[in-house]
Amino acid sequence: MSDQERCVVVGYDGTPEGTAALRWALEHAGPEVGVVAVAALGSEPAPVPGGGRVARVGTRMGHDDRRMWSAWEVDAEAVGDEAELVVERGLPSEVLLTIARDRGAELLVLGHHRRRLGGVLPSVLRDVLASADVPVVVVRG
Asked: By three-state DSSP, how is residue 40 classified?
């Protein structure tokens, strides 16, 4: 690794699954490894094979954005300064992969959302698994 601080990147969206991923990372990362919770304010469509991807990125705060900030207030109280929150706009899978690469992450941790269509993995998880340069841990919430 470079001179960068060692870190684990966690996909965080304010859902119970995102919180489970954050707690798993904090429990398993160890004291010398920083935990970076990454929230991507944008969305991807339901995972339909062959479906197009369109980012819903605007300036207005949507329901999902408010849910994420409300959940972070609660989770931040519980974790203190053990985790850093990074918020970016864009497609969640792209944001997670970019930050993991930029930070030299050793591991990506994602919560498993049970929303699926006929056994197809949710699009963020599927795309991260297909393109990640580091190991990915999937935590069931």
From this structure: strand
The span from the CA of 84 to the CA of 4, in Å, is 15
Distance between CA atoms of residues 15 and 26, nearest Å: 17
Burial of residue 134 (CB within 10 Å: 0-12, 13-18, 19+) is: middle
Q: Rounded CA gap, 57 and 2, in Å?
A: 33
**CB environment 96-125: b (16+ within 10 A), e (fewer):** bbbbbeebebebbbbbbbeeeeeeebbbbb
What is the reported pTM? 0.78
Amino acid identity of residue 23, one-letter, is R
| Cα 50 from Cα 123, distance rounded (Å) | 11
Residues in the chain: 141
pLDDT tens for the chain, residues 1 to 141: 345 688 999 999 888 889 999 999 999 888 888 899 888 876 544 444 444 444 444 444 566 677 888 888 888 888 877 888 998 888 889 999 999 999 999 999 999 876 654 454 567 888 999 999 999 999 986
